[in-house]
UniProtKB/TrEMBL annotation:
Keywords: Acyltransferase, Transferase
Domain named N-acetyltransferase: residues: 1-149
Signal sequence residues: none
InterPro entries: Acyl_CoA_acyltransferase, Bact_Acetyltransf, GNAT_dom, Sper_AcTfrase_N
UniProt-recorded name of the protein: GNAT family N-acetyltransferase
GO molecular function: acyltransferase activity, transferring groups other than amino-acyl groups
Domain of life of the organism encoding this protein: Bacteria
Transferase listed as a keyword: yes
PANTHER family membership: AMINOALKYLPHOSPHONATE N-ACETYLTRANSFERASE-RELATED (PTHR43877:SF2), AMINOALKYLPHOSPHONATE N-ACETYLTRANSFERASE-RELATED-RELATED (PTHR43877)
One Pfam family of this chain: Acetyltransf_1
Keyword set includes Transferase: yes
Length: 151
């Protein structure tokens, strides 16, 4: 599994990725994510397609140390999705592992994300990875933090 830039050559294949119907309330589509990234350059969006071999299987987007706002100077996972045909194979976990390594290499001491609570929410996935609630709520979403051990 590897991360690859979204380019004109793969944009349509990446935009075609879909989560299961019961997950749609928790994660926006790749198309919506790319539109949000374009509309909010101040959030310093950083996004990649997730590939297994030559096939796109997922998408991840971070707010990478934005210069202002509630996550100023921090790394925040804005979007993470694995296509419904490729779930339950460890791809989400491996994506988080790679993202955590990239963020840590950038000098971060933590990685943030959030989720919308509800039936089928992604909290168990993040909890297994080591994320903990910060106690903050952002626009109705529970904010989580993965703290990196000191080196």
């Amino acid at each position: 599994m590897h991360l690859r830039e979204v380019t004109d050559d793969n944009r349509e294949a990446v935009r075609a990725l879909r989560v299961r119907r019961d997950q749609k309330q928790f994660v926006a589509s790749v198309s919506k994510s790319l539109k949000q990234a374009a509309r909010h350059p101040e959030a310093n969006p950083w996004y990649r397609a997730v590939y297994v071999g030559d096939e796109p299987v997922g998408f991840v987007m971070l707010s990478w140390k934005p210069p202002a706002g509630p996550y100023k100077g921090r790394h925040f996972i804005w979007r993470l999705l694995v296509d419904k045909r490729h779930q339950r194979r460890g791809i989400g976990r491996e994506t988080l592992t790679q993202i955590a390594a990239l963020v840590r290499a950038d000098g971060a001491t933590e990685l943030l994300t959030s989720y919308d609570p509800g039936e089928g929410e992604p909290w168990p996935f993040y909890e297994k990875f080591g994320f903990e609630p910060t106690g903050e709520i952002d626009d109705g979403e529970v904010v989580l933090r993965l703290v990196f051990p000191s080196r």
